[in-house]
């Protein structure tokens, strides 16, 4: 399974947009880009996923670079409840979700 | 969304005893479930893939005789930590999904915190 690289931590202010980057230069053509988040002492929660085109759902947007070697998770208006560790994961033919270190997002009021 | 429930949420056991953790898919059937372990301030580590009606497949370095997995029905997988020791203290998490594939979302249980004393 190809690896991803994310910043260890990021900060945001409440009500402002947040752009969480992820690099995945060794992505294969059939890998889907998945994002999950984990609040303290809870199991991860699905956020969004995509293959090539940008994706939107009620939680977030996913912007995927044309060469697919990077992607950005966009939270349009951060709230205090969005403070979590965000994981960018490539999911391929094995169907496994291999978690990296993720990005710890802090949201300031 | 689909619901995956783990039981218990937390457990304390004595060193040398065995502990069973249940993972249930409440509103869907799952032929495959995954088990993870997470140490404090670390990421989730995939332990094994639980397959209904067949043997689990374990990730490299995970002792199958130590972590027994049984997936006896389409809605229940169990992880038994045998002869637990303090170093097995961790947060154990399972996941399942109604349709398996790289293009589907996984649903996670709330986790089970195991403390071995």
Written overview of the protein:
The complex is a heterodimer of chains A (109) and B (117). With 109 residues, chain A is an all-beta fold. In chain A, 0% of the residues lie in helices and 46% in strands. Chain A is built from no helices and nine strands. Chain A has strands at residues 9-13, 18-23, 32-38, 45-50, 55-56, 61-64, 70-75, 84-91, 103-108. Chain A has a five-stranded mixed sheet with strand order 1-9-8-3-4, with no helix packed on it. In chain A, a hairpin with a 6-residue loop joins strand 3 (32-38) and strand 4. Chain A is globular, with a radius of gyration of 13 Å. The termini of chain A are far apart. The model of chain A has no long low-confidence stretch (mean pLDDT 96). With 117 residues, chain B is mainly β. Helix content of chain B is 0%, strand content 50%. Chain B contains no helices and eleven strands. Chain B has strands at 4-7, 10-13, 19-25, 32-38, 45-51, 57-58, 67-73, 76-81, 90-96, 107-108, 112-116. In chain B, the strands form two sheets. In chain B, strands 2, 4, 5, 6, 9, 10 and 11 form a seven-stranded mixed sheet that branches. In chain B, strands 1-3-8-7 form a four-stranded antiparallel sheet, with no helix packed on it. In chain B, a hairpin with a 5-residue loop joins strand 5 (45-51) and strand 6 (57-58). The relative contact order of chain B is 0.33. The interface between A and B is medium-sized, with 26 and 26 residues.
